[in-house]
Design a protein that fits this description.
- With 60 residues, this protein is mainly alpha-helical.
- It has one domain.
- The protein is 55% helix and 0% strand.
- It is built from three helices and no strands.
- The relative contact order is 0.28.
Amino acid sequence: MTKNVGGIDRILRVVVGVALLAWGYMAQNWLGAIGLVPLFTAAIGWCPVYLPFGIKTCKN
């Protein structure tokens, strides 16, 4: 599993993840838990969706 998520991409994923979790909490809707996906992919630096398309936003 090589890293394929770079710096700016990671920051955007964290912002989107936190926003989705906050929305879910405020709206009392369990769909906000979808925000865990971008947070997890930002934390590990690897996105499985990028793999088949050959996308790599990190410099390594």
